[in-house]
């Protein structure tokens, strides 16, 4: 299937690398709201530059469009692509409100096309092992489920583009932008959240509208309790890994980026030895914690391959809009609680 990329910044570059490496897809060209950017980007990676998004969407050779525009500017190109009969894969977050996500989902269904998200942190061997342990009941009763994203972005990062740190186009701060993949992983593993109580602040940056630190207390539908802590103001020389930690009456697993700090179960099974031999943490360096360009494109590649497979098989991808909606709904609830002095906010079932 032939891909077209909308958006030629750092995210567009990730998409291009992933498409070049994947099976079942090839890059047909790029488009940007500023044609000159598309030309420069296309020259850099050796592909075709469309003069406009409309020109790309009118090209019958393009099957799938990936969208890497600012977070709050996903809606319009996604809806235009859907109307043109293209399948769509949207960078995180799918959109910054559940209302927009619902409109996009309904439009895709009405036009018979697939809309999916980039949920790339689901695609690595440690996550596969973690999810299998959950699904096979190895934790006993899940009692604790938390996520910690103690990252750093300097002031220059926010100053580098006018949309960064705004509600309208970033949709939030440390949670909606940097933490959303880890929050998605937490929900993917621990299940739906029933209620949240939260507090947010901007402590280390200026001229931004959103939080650079947030803490939320969670109650899951299962009865488990947990914490989300997301930050862009916690410096370290190597960068802290993002962590997802689950524990229950019969086991504990702590994941740091793509490796385990703890893999410990009351009832061992033979495959535990392979996990401990190949998936335990080493340096502790955070992937993208201090430098967003340090993130590997391999998980994007697997994400795109899953979407192509789902389209060919006539099924919903595992990174469907419904899946992507869950983390946005939770982050919206956290913001609502924080804006109301930490009062509990209950999520819809």
Task: Give a written overview of the molecule.
The chain has two domains: 116 residues, Rossmann fold; 184 residues, Dihydrodipicolinate Reductase, domain 2, CATH 3.30.360.10. The radius of gyration is 20 Å and the shape is globular. The strands form two sheets. Strands 12-11-10-6-9-8-7-13 form an eight-stranded mixed sheet. Strands 2-1-3-4-5 form a five-stranded parallel sheet, with helices on both faces. It has 349 residues and is an alpha/beta fold. α5 links the parallel β4 and β5. α1 packs across α10. It has eleven helices and 13 strands.
Mean pLDDT, all residues: 95
The main sheet comes to: 8 strands, mixed
CATH architecture of the largest domain: 2-Layer Sandwich
**Uncertain parts:** none
* Spatial ordering of strands, largest sheet: 12-11-10-6-9-8-7-13
Rg estimate, integer Å: 20 Å
Give the number of DSSP strands. Answer: 13
Note the run of SSEs as H and E: EHEHHEHEHEHEHHEEEEEEHHHE
Question: CATH fold name of the largest domain, please?
Answer: Dihydrodipicolinate Reductase, domain 2
The proportion of residues in beta strands is 15-25%
Roughly how much helix do the residues carry, as a percent range?
A: 25-40%
């Amino acid at each position: 299937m032939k891909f077209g990329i909308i958006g030629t910044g750092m995210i567009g570059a990730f998409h291009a690398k992933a498409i070049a490496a994947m099976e079942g897809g090839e890059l047909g060209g790029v488009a940007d709201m500023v044609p000159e950017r598309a030309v420069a980007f296309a020259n850099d990676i050796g592909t075709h530059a469309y003069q406009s998004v409309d020109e790309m969407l009118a090209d019958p050779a393009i099957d799938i469009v990936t969208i890497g525009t600012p977070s709050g500017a996903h809606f319009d190109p996604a809806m235009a692509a859907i109307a043109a009969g293209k399948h769509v894969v949207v960078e995180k977050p799918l959109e910054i409100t559940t209302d927009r996500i619902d409109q996009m989902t309904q439009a895709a269904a009405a036009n018979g096309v697939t809309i999916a998200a980039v949920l790339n942190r689901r695609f690595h061997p440690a996550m596969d092992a973690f999810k299998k342990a959950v699904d096979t009941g190895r934790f006993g009763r899940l009692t604790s489920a938390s996520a910690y994203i103690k990252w750093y972005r300097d002031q220059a990062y926010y100053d580098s583009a006018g949309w960064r740190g705004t509600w309208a186009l970033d949709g939030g701060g440390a949670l909606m932008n940097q933490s959303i993949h880890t929050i998605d992983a937490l929900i993917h593993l621990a299940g739906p959240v029933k209620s949240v109580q939260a507090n947010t602040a901007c402590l280390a940056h200026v001229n931004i509208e959103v939080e650079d630190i947030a803490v939320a207390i969670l109650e899951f539908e299962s009865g488990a309790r947990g914490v989300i802590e997301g930050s862009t103001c916690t410096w370290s020389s190597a960068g802290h890994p993002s962590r997802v930690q689950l524990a229950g009456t019969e086991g504990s697993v702590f994941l740091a980026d793509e490796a385990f700090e703890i893999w410990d179960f009351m009832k061992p099974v033979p495959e535990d030895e392979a996990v401990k031999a190949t998936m335990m943490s080493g340096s502790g360096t955070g992937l993208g914690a201090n430098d967003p360009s340090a993130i590997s494109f391999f998980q994007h590649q697997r994400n795109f391959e899953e979407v192509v497979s789902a389209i060919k098989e006539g099924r919903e991808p595992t990174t469907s809009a419904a899946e992507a909606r869950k983390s946005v709904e939770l982050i919206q609830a956290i913001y609502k609680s924080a804006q109301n002095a930490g009062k509990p906010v209950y999520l819809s079932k």
